[in-house]
Input
Amino acid sequence: MEGSVGLTVQDQSPSSESRKCSAVTGSGRKLKDNAADWHNLILRWEKLNNEGSGVAEKIVDQRLKRSPGEAAAPPPGSAPPARGRPLEQACSELVGVVSKMASIVAKMERLASSERGVLELETFQRGAAGRGGPLFHGWPTQLFVEQSAGLLQCYQKELALKQRVLQELAHTGPQDLCMVYLSCWLHQPYVPADSRLALEALLLETGHRAL
Output
């Protein structure tokens, strides 16, 4: 598990349903811990996205300040011009941000694989019909697998876009295209609003959010 998750809890005495969610063991505990990990990883992703957006803006600003002749790479062995150093530093910062995002997606892949493993174990132990009732409020285990797969696909596609943005901003290219990629970075087209709703549904189902 990535660590304790900062989620809202009820101030009132817990209901029988919330006690059920807090007392889960085995597969239920694994799925509940995974839900907390999804929450924490997505929070970290959003923080990196904001950080990367600021760095990308610096890169575009530096490139807009350059004259067309400065866009060419310096001769081999020569030091970069002084005005080029802030641009190189910003590009290096964005490389670091994208690398951290790739690490987050790798952890998401392990979460999705873990949930497939829970379903496979359940199928092995109980047959194709699965368990007789839900682990929490109402979801079958298959739905946890589907929700995780959907979230993973969103962030895999968004990571690929970030890597493309990095390539375009770090190398010579039309300035108007740089502005398009800057907008793509900020607005995250592959992470739509319904992916955030999927995360909230996951947290509700596992008892991390109060119903």
Remarks:
- Confidence is low (pLDDT under 50) at residues 3-22, 69-76.
- The CA atoms of residues 109 and 119 lie 16 Å apart.
